[in-house]
Design a protein that fits this description.
The complex is a heterodimer. Helices cover 77% and strands 0% of the residues of chain A. By secondary structure, chain A is mainly α. Chain B is built from 9 helices and 21 strands. The two termini of chain B are 31 Å apart. Classes of the chains: A mainly alpha, B alpha+beta. At the A-B interface, helix 6 and helix 7 of A face strand 7 and helix 2 of B.
Chain lengths: 224, 362
Amino acid sequence: MDWEALGLSLRLAGLTTLVLLLLGLPLAWWLATTRRRWKFLVEALVAMPLVLPPTVLGFYLLLAMGSRSPLGRGYIALTGHPLAFSFEGLLLASILYSLPFTVQPFAAAFAAVDRGLLEASWCLGASRLRTFLRVALPLSWTGILTGMVLSFAHTLGEFGVVLMVGGDLPGRTRTASIAVFDQVQALDYAAAGRTALLLLGVSFGVLALTYGLRHARRLPWPLS
Amino acid sequence: MAPFLSAGAERRFPGAGTVEARFDIPCTGFSITVLFGPSGSGKTTILRMLAGLERLDAGRILCGDETWADADRGVHRPPQARRIGLLSQGYDLFPHLDVAANLAYGLPGLVPDERRARVAHLLALLDLQGLERRLPAQLSGGQRQRVALGRALARYPRLLLLDEPLSALDRPTQARLRRGLRDLLRHLDLPTVLVTHDRTEALQLGDRIVVMDGGRMCQAGPIREVFDRPSDPAVARILGVETVLLGRVVDARDGLATLAVGDVLLHAADPGGLGERAFLCIRGEDVLLERGDPGPSTARNRLRGWIRTLQPEGLLVRLTLDCGFPLESLVTRQACAELRLAEGEVVTALLKASALHLIPHD
């Protein structure tokens, strides 16, 4: 059993989900509330990873991270080692790749919040930030949970981008989904079967937990 | 500066016309100004302009010596900084917060003890004790309305804005709450702007009225004056009733109320809950006319008067009588011809008690 690969996968998925939560909330809120005409361009950009072949995204990311690109050079100057074929590079790729899986459920949930409630909050003296935290966020939590679970599960299962950007370095960029591929290539079907079953179990468990929570009764939000 | 809320402002909706707000209303002490008009006349938009939820396209809104909005200078004071209490049509209670948390929502600046005391005060003021842990979905319509009102009052607003505060309720609840609402606002000594398309609500709650139609202000003034003397037929049509009188309640027993309008006594069906004064609304169709000395009749009210004006309106003729007060009557052309009615002629107007619609106004 390749526990190292599974641990790496979980760490990558967890960190990706965390970063996407922090990044996705303001971006999704902006998408759900803005009246700017060029909003559709941002929406299209965010949705790109849904339709782009992972290898294409991976290819461009590889170029962007290479030592000849400003990003790659800057990263080397800052940390001393290259971004490509590193865990950090993998993280960056995963964030971009899972962006729509986070932002779209977030934005849908925010858009469903009655604007009258936001206006009521403003008239009660609450700032826009406080309104977001006390009204929009608690009323959107099922959508936010969905977005987080989808990005977690999606990162866990990603293959093409990881292979392109990360290579296949044990302990650094060799995730569970790539380990399965390697094990099959090595004709070690028993090991591949165990890793695959584990991924299947984790994915199902996470999804089942989410759906279970979504169907749970909505509890009163505690006072302040 | 004079303590007036003074609006001279416009909001334009491309392809859907313009809404203008042009009025001065007192913004200290108790008074209720009614924005009255049919659906789509722009009443709610004006309320939203006052709340800061709509930006102005032209003109400005001043409250006392504060500039709330000035389109020319690009000033827009956000709703957070206007200290208003807004009660929207659907109440917009926060569905995930219980009653106490909804009431306390605008009070994050208070220390917990003060906040609890304020919430307890509001619960008592609005008769909501025992409901503090309920969610909005677990309340009746009337309770929801009171929670929303309490929430709007929590921060001691300088101006209260009510958008059709009773329209989401059933008729009996409306009647019950209408009575309480005016007393409560007087008790709180709050200037209030109230939007409604309901004449009963306007007459019972309002001190001043602004009549709106198609985004334009038609007439503004004290409510009695506007109902007495609509500035033009359009306003009269919007107000929708021919005769509105303010009477003093002299007696009320056995379901029959007696009111004095000047020297004239009128009998009307008692709707209950009458105080000292009430508006009497009389529709022109309900005023029957007779010539000479009428025989016995079931009509409770017989009024001698003379015809001041006579004006054909399609198949009908509109007559204004002087019976000690102006009274409008609508009769058919045939009836008018048969009775040989003409200006200056003396007639008797017959009115059933049930045709006098009473609206308490104290």
